[in-house]
Amino acid sequence: MRSRCIECGYVGEATPINIFCSKCGGLIDIEVIYGKGVSWDSINGKEPSIWRYRELLPIPRNVKRVSLGEGCTPLIRADRLPGLNGSLEIYVKFEGANPTGSFKDRGMSVAVSLANHYGLKRFIVASTGNTSASAAAYVSRIGGKCIVLVPFGAVAKGKLAQAILHGAEIYEVRGSFDVALDRVRKILMYGETIYPLNSLNPWRLEGQKTIAYEIAEFLGDIPDYVVLPVGNAGNIYAIGKGFLELYNLGMIDRLPRLIGVQAKGASPMTRLWREGGDRLIPIERPETIATAIRIGNPVNWRRALKIVRRLNGVIIDVDDDEILYSQKVMARYIGVGCEPAGAASLAGTYKLYRDGYLDRGDRVICVATGHALKDPDIIMKMDYSRRVYDPDELLNVLLERD
After folding, report:
1. What are the CA-CA distances from residue 14 to residues 5, 108, 112, 197, 387 (Å)?
2. pTM for this one?
3. What dotted CATH number matches 75-101+204-380?
4. Burial bucket for residue 53 (CB in 10 Å: 0-12, 13-18, 19+)
5. 112: pLDDT confidence band, cut at 50, 70 and 90?
6. CA distance 367 to 343
7. How far is it, in rounded angstroms, from Cα 265 to Cα 319?
8. H or E element in which residue 364 lies
9. Spatial separation of the C-alpha atoms in residues 57 and 73, rounded to whole Å
10. 33 with 55: CB under 8 angstroms?
11. Which terminus of the chain is more exposed, N or C, with fewer CB under 10 A?
């Protein structure tokens, strides 16, 4: 196992303590060298969590897992969707079924397990919400301290409530998520013995790549497309990395195309993709109703750009109306209640189908990244029937209706 800097290319020893390049301070990737005997047969029958893939994770055998039963989330067939008329074979990978309600739990389990093994008990994250909820829960498992930086007034109540409940020390920062994350990086530069759990930490992304493993294992085949929301861009990289590793091991015989979906008010990577360049221009004040992806300067943009190109994918954006429509469709036609950011995957699928990018019969996986209860305020603003009746009056109304 070794690390490779995504900026200067330096190859060094991979240890969970080191999350930045020792030469230039850039972000690093973890390159796992697998032994013989890793196959689907070696996985079959193991526990229903990400830890069924332990042979594919860069974790020493003597590391004690810190787990809440994350992973093995449902892969749900969408049999009827308005506007598609059965044209696509769509499945929803519902990450809201994880313990704290988002895909973040996968990475937290791996990162906190490794940190705990090395005796680290102080952690820090910047968050739009889901990261803080997940980090606080997993750090509480080991009796550690979790410091959370969130943009003031811009985090959904359902997410902030989780961080509070799990005992996190919360600091609200005037500015965007990008400002909060910049402060985390500055704190780390001072040499504080505090461990970051944002997606700049490559060990966290190692846990998130298990989404790819589950799609391949549970579907029993490889889809044509995997579509998912993009905020800080760590998850799209992790999932692409997972598929590439399976392919290199001979466990799958082809790769899916990877589609990243941003919200229009927070879409610096979409702009970069359209212009065909190699330099990200941040959005200083990102705005979207999908708070989980309200990020204007994604720290993992280089990783994501490389992996999307490798898997012959594309990065697009959708507006808030498209996201909210898809959130309703997911709930009312599939039965999946996800937060707005999670619905961006279906919104992107609709858009690509309308634009002729997707063909009839294509098999598509939409990754719904977080649970609907993460952001109840958005749901309560939707139009719905609400009337108050006396009990006897209600009975008469309902009988007349039937």
Report:
1. 11, 18, 16, 17, 60
2. 0.95
3. 3.40.50.1100
4. buried
5. very high
6. 8
7. 8
8. strand 363-368
9. 18
10. no
11. C
